[in-house]
Every structure is written in C-alpha cells, then in structure tokens.
From TrEMBL:
Pfam families: Enc34_ssDNA-bd (PF10991). This is DUF2815 domain-containing protein. It comes from Corynebacterium rouxii. It comes from the Bacteria.
Length: 205
C-alpha cells in the first residue's frame, strides 16, 4: 500500500522515494540568488504511478490557482519550467535511472521537520539521519511563479520521514547546479511550523 496522498490542492505526500543532494540539517547558499535555503532532490520510481499522478494533479492545481501570475492565461506546457524531470534523459547518473526527480527547497526560516521511523512510529530524526541515499516519504507543495521572464511551477520542500537506510550517495558538492533554476523570489509556503502530514507518532496508522 502506497503512502502517497494529496494533502491539499497543491500539497503532496509522496510514496517511498530516495533522497539525493540532501541539505536539510543546515541551509546551503544558492550560488545564483545568494540566499540560503534547505534543499533536496527527490527520486521517484517510475513505477510509482500513484505519486506521479498526484504530483501532476497538484501541478495543474498550482497553475490554475496561480493563473493571475501569467496574465490570466496559462502558457503552453512547453513554455513552462515544470518540477517533474526525467532521470533517464536529464541525468547521466545510474542512481537516477528508472526515476523521475524533483528538486525542492525551503526558505531558511522554514526548515523541514525531520522524522524517522522507529518501532512503527515517526520520531524526531537526529542530525545526519536524513542523508543522500536514504529512503523515505516527503511532503512537497507546488506553486506557480513568474519571475524575471521565467515562468513555471516550483516545488517547496515540506517535511521528511526517513523510512530506511540506503547506500550513501556522493556528489553533493554540485547541488547548486540542481537548484539554480529555482526562482529566487518563489517562496515555499512550507517548513517549520507545518506538519505537512507528519509531526505525529501515528502518521502511518
């Protein structure tokens, strides 16, 4: 049974995904905007059609809700930067094979809540528990933006529940390249102070 769920019109809880380019314990400076943010690349198996369908639905909802940012008319999909990307064609990395991926971030004042599964319950994670290569669930919130000629839908990083360990991944030094296309002024509505479906020990009940 998948844990994927549409939490609200633009907010999605994924099924099990793999974490990559993880910067959630401490923020990282974006080389383009010069601002600090928390960030993660979320690897979604192409077989997880439920999560993918919910994300597509949330993207469409974000476009409809943000239509005013596009002058009252949603541009053609080909003219938009959309968050769901194909790991088989956009990344030369075997880890990304067979996956779609989403790069998500959160403002420095909205640090994601980090939890881990222990004894069937979600408990607070310690620093280093959530790392590149681990597996878990993530909440993301999709939002439309139109900034400096860039138009699209971004992904705000919500909260994270680590389910299990995995082989640690390297390559975090180039994370800025993955997140440089995030519009600097496109703020996540997510992070500290929001449970996003997490935050209680009965999350998986």
């Amino acid at each position: 049974m998948s844990n994927a769920k549409l939490m609200s019109a633009r907010r999605v809880r994924t099924g099990e995904v793999r974490f990559s380019y993880v910067h959630v314990d401490t923020p990282r400076v974006n080389k383009d905007s010069g601002k600090e943010s928390y960030s993660m690349s979320i690897l979604i198996p192409k077989t997880d059609t439920e999560t993918l369908s919910l994300i597509e639905q949330a993207v469409e909802n974000a476009l409809q809700e943000g239509i005013g940012k596009f002058g009252g008319k949603i541009p053609p999909r080909g003219a938009l930067k959309l968050p769901l990307r194909d790991g088989d064609t956009e990344r030369e990395d075997p880890v990304y094979e067979g996956h779609y991926f989403i790069n998500a971030n959160a403002n420095v004042d909205r640090q994601p809540q980090l939890l881990k599964l222990s004894g069937g319950k979600a408990v607070p994670a310690q620093e280093g528990d959530v790392y590149s290569g681990a597996y878990g669930l993530v909440t993301i919130e999709l939002f439309a933006y139109s900034t400096n000629g860039n138009k699209g839908v971004g992904a705000g990083l919500g909260n994270i529940l680590k389910l299990r360990d995995g082989e640690a991944l390297s390559g975090g030094a180039t994370a800025e390249d993955d997140f440089g296309d995030i519009a600097p002024t496109a703020a996540s509505e997510f992070g500290a102070g929001s449970t996003g479906g997490f935050g209680s020990s009965s999350f998986l009940d």
